[in-house]
Design brief:
Length: 184
Amino acid sequence: MVVAAIAGLKTFLVVSLLLPGAHGNLELISGLFALFFALTAAVAYLSFTQVRALLERQRKEKLVPGAGEPVAKETVILRNAQGWGLSQAEADVAIFVVKGFSNAEIAEMRGCAIATVKSQLGRIYHKTGLASRYQLIAFVTDEVCSMAFEAEEDTPQVMTRDVLPLVGRQKRAPEGGPLKAARV
């Protein structure tokens, strides 16, 4: 419908401005309309295929980790955090949630109150449009599966301790030895 309207407008403009004496020549007008319809349809089709190809490339680039970027839950959260508008603290809490930690464990590891973690979770759910920790976990799991399907097999793994600052959770070494951060 849009193509026909554009072709009709082009035909009208050409007949009115360039061929003022051809108003009664239906064969010429029909021919011009058919030509403009075909050209407009071709341009629309090429534009559509190019836009679709661009969107598909962008989708694959988003799914496939970049150089050195691992297929991991952390990667999904960190990629989406900016688009969702998450603060660094909220992104950290989201990573811990998708890793399966409870609110109390997250509070201990981050060195904050459980109420702070609950508040941050509420903001995470609001910003992401997800309703619960289970929906967040499901979303991230689906994205990791998509990334793994698209990625090469030798993608490096990420360690949580390399991505998140672990403040609280400390292990005591035997008999007066130095404190060590717990492995997560």
